[in-house]
Specification:
This protein has 217 residues and is of the alpha+beta class. The chain contains 7 helices and 6 strands. The strands form 2 sheets. A 4-stranded antiparallel sheet has the order 1-2-6-3, with helices on both faces. A two-stranded antiparallel ribbon has the order 4-5. The relative contact order is 0.20. Bound molecules: iron/sulfur cluster (SF4) (2 copies). The site of one iron/sulfur cluster (SF4) has 14 residues, from helix 6 and helix 7.
């Protein structure tokens, strides 16, 4: 029933996970519904050298699409008499603007949708890193997925392409601190300086666009 509703929202990339206790922002909502929407291949392939206004708009619109789907799913679950809350697709809650309330990537990994690349982005089997995520947390008991082999091949192309030198080239594994993969501050400062005219430096995307997995069919 839940599946049908999610598919009816136009989301065909989703999965269920049980969130480890220490990572639950709402302790009484142990399950995560991970929702993914792919980005346009055409738009993504146009930003291998740097972001464009078209990409910035597409990025924001895709996040809004995900937020809309997540809110509708949350309301649907509440109507069933259960509890739910959605975590926005792109929201930071720390003063430096580089961390969210909850890791969408962790939920998607645990749900079996993919792994994490050397670019520190979520990498799905079907769309590579060209995918946006959001999550609905709930107390609906769900049949959870299980992690799959990481689709990232450690080719290092994203690491070489980063104009900020923000990626370390380390291979991701569960539990590795994000700092060992990416210097998020370096990335953020570079975006603000180099791409200020595009969404006030809120996007870059080069390390996503150069990934060969974005074009895998
Ligand atoms: S978004 Fe841009 S600056 Fe940040 S890590 Fe990726 S390529 Fe580097
Ligand atoms: S470019 Fe290579 S190393 Fe980077 S995320 Fe893609 S497959 Fe992994």
């Amino acid at each position: 029933m839940l599946e049908d509703f999610i598919i009816g929202l136009g989301i065909d990339h989703f999965g269920y996970a049980l969130i480890p206790e220490d990572y639950r922002p709402f302790p009484y909502l142990p399950y995560a519904i991970s929702l993914g929407v792919p980005l346009s291949k055409t738009v993504v392939s146009s930003i291998r050298k740097g972001p464009t206004h078209t990409y910035f708009h597409h990025y924001r619109t895709t996040n809004a699409y995900l937020d809309n789907a997540a809110i509708r799913l949350m309301l649907y679950i509440e109507k069933l008499g259960k509890s739910a809350v959605y975590i926005p697709a792109s929201q930071t809650v720390d003063s430096e603007g580089i961390r969210g309330l909850f890791s969408h990537k962790m939920a998607a990994f645990l749900a079996g949708l993919g792994g994490i690349g050397q670019n520190a982005l979520f990498v799905s089997e079907k769309h590579g890193p060209a995918l946006r995520l959001s999550t609905v947390l709930t107390d609906v008991p769900l049949q959870t997925g299980s992690p799959i082999q990481n689709p990232c091949t450690d080719c290092g192309i994203c690491v070489q392409a980063c104009p900020a030198g923000a990626l370390t080239g380390e291979t991701w594994h569960p539990g590795i601190p994000r700092e060992e993969l990416v210097d998020a501050k370096k990335c953020s400062l570079h975006m603000k300086k180099a791409y200020r005219s595009i969404g006030r430096g809120g996007v870059c995307g080069i390390c996503m666009a150069v990934c060969p997995l974005c074009n895998a069919d």
